[in-house]
Amino acid sequence: MTNSSKAGNYRWFVCGLLFFATTINYIDRQIIGFLKPTLEVEFNWTESDYARIVMIFSACYALGFLVFGNFIDRLGSKIGYAVSVVVWSIAAMLHAAAKTTFGFAAFRGLLGISEAGNFPAAVKVIAEWFPQKERGLATGIFNSGTSIGPIIAPILIPWLLGAFGWKEAFVITGALGFIWLVLWWIYYEVPAKQKRLSQAEYDLIHAGQPPVETQGAAEKKIKWSQLLGLRQTWVFIVGKLLTDPIWWFFLFWLPSYFASTFDLDLKKPSMHLAVVYSLTTFGSIAGGYLSSSLIKRGWPALKARKTVLFIVAVVVLSILLIRFATDIWTVVILISIAAAAHQAWSTNILTVVSDIIPKNSVSSVVGIGGMAGSLGSTIFPLLVGSLLDHYKAIGNIGAGYNILFTICGLAYFVAWGIIQLLTSKMKPVEEVLKEK
Q1: CB contact at 8 A, 23 and 148
Q2: Where does the record locate the signal sequence feature (predicted)?
Q3: How big is the CA angle at 89 (ends 87 and 95), to the nearest 5 degrees?
Q4: How far apart are CA 144 and CA 149, in angstroms?
Q5: Alpha-carbon distance 78 to 132, whole Å?
């Protein structure tokens, strides 16, 4: 067996590229949450108008998952990822050219379609570059970009807004993707073509897996109709459909929640939001580390992932206590715990795909499940917007948020229960395909 400490660490450099891309992805999508008060004045938005714009982004994001999942499996991770980043960076910058709400929403939709390529590409890269025992930690590291982006945003975006204006904020943050693209194109290639990779590290990456030339039918791209007939695919669909809307709620409404409930000034850098998203970074990495640690101790991969998912479902219940809190820092702590737990969930549900789906179909399954999660995230803002408008009209918007926090707290237990049922008698993909 190859010693991982002596084999080399180029795979972790690749993981770093995924982390930075994911960080930029989340800065570009979350900027709207911090510019919301300014844009409400600029475009005369109501809460329902804002909800519909979030819904358009979510719907297009869902479509983008389906498009890019298949696109990346066909053309490979290097080209597929690059195309996604180019288009989303251009879309992010185009927000500055919007003159009407319709135009703004159109650019938001283009951003949604193109940003969806990030996760199908990143999970495919993890499957290509990491042995199973390291995938949880590697996924946790790159997925922590979904937390680091929101940590940077409360500091960077208010400063850009104050120093330059909302249009310049979109242009500057959108341009970050092109810096990443240069590094990706120079330094990334699949392991079989990467000249910077040592033979020892190559052997470590492929330890316990069939040789590339003998992987056979299991490594041929599986048709969508076949993927939808697999319990493995539905494990990921359920895991995303019921929990992605919660994370999007945290991203798009937490700034507004703190502003309306605790009079937080969003035109100034926010330590409260920075703390929330800082702790989610811990959740992402810790969740991946825990499942990887259990696998190294001899646990079956799926059992390790599901155990962490159950722990997450218990921890998220802390958010139900917010209705009893009156101090902003108490609320920050409770939301931080729930949001960190979500990131641990996200890391493990993404890693499950690379555990139970053949490599050449990983992006397609991530695309299908990501589309399901985005559809849920498309519908949920309608409830959020109408609920908050109703309670704002009667002068008790806090009650609306309490209802939403209750939904957030229970969603993970429901998802875990369904996943447990799906995996109780699940057969390996190869066996199911032979039977058909």
Answers
A1: yes
A2: none
A3: 105
A4: 9
A5: 21
DSSP of 146-161: HHHHHHHHHHHHHHHH
* CATH code for position 329: 1.20.1250.20
pTM of the model: 0.75
Distance of alpha carbon 71 from alpha carbon 80, whole angstroms: 7
| Axis crossing angle, helix 328-356 with helix 231-241, rounded to the nearest 10 | 170
Whole-number Å distance between alpha carbons of 150 and 264: 17
Q: Find out whether 180 and 6 touch, Cβ atoms under 8 Å.
A: no
Residues in the chain, total: 436
Half-sphere exposure in the Cβ direction for 326 (13 Å, CA): 0
Is residue 47 within 8 A of residue 388, CB to CB? The reply is: yes
Q: Looking at residue 428, what DSSP letter applies?
A: P
Question: What one-character DSSP code corresponds to residue 299?
Answer: -
The token pair that represents 336 in the structure block: 């931080």
Q: What is the number of structural domains in the chain?
A: 1
Containing domain of residue 197, as a range? 7-208+218-424+429-433
Q: Rounded to whole angstroms, how far apart are CA atoms 37 and 45?
A: 9
Give per-residue pLDDT as tens, 368-404: 888 888 888 878 878 888 888 888 888 888 888 889 9
- pLDDT tens by residue, 294-343: 988 989 989 999 999 999 999 999 999 998 988 889 999 999 999 999 99
In a domain, 201, yes or no: yes
Instruction: Report the largest interatomic distance among the alpha carbons of the chain, rounded to a whole angstrom.
Output: 67
pLDDT of residue 74: 85
- Residues 115-139: what's their mean pLDDT? 90
Torsion angle, CA of 218/221/223/228, rounded to 10 degrees? 60
Q: What is the DSSP string of 226-284?
A: HHTT-HHHHHHHHHHHTTHHHHHHHHHHHHHHHHHHH---TTS--HHHHHHHHHHHHHH
**Considering the domain boundaries, does residue 1 fall inside one?**
no
H-helix or E-strand spanning residue 362: helix 362-393
Asked, for residue 94, whether it belongs to a domain, the answer is: yes
Q: How far apart are CA 430 and CA 436, in angstroms?
A: 10
Q: At residue 430, does pLDDT exceed 80? A: no
Interatomic CA distance for residues 370 and 78, integer angstroms? 20
**How buried is 351 (Cβ within 10 angstroms: 0-12 exposed, 13-18 middle, 19+ buried)?**
buried
Contact 64, 116 (CB under 8 A): yes
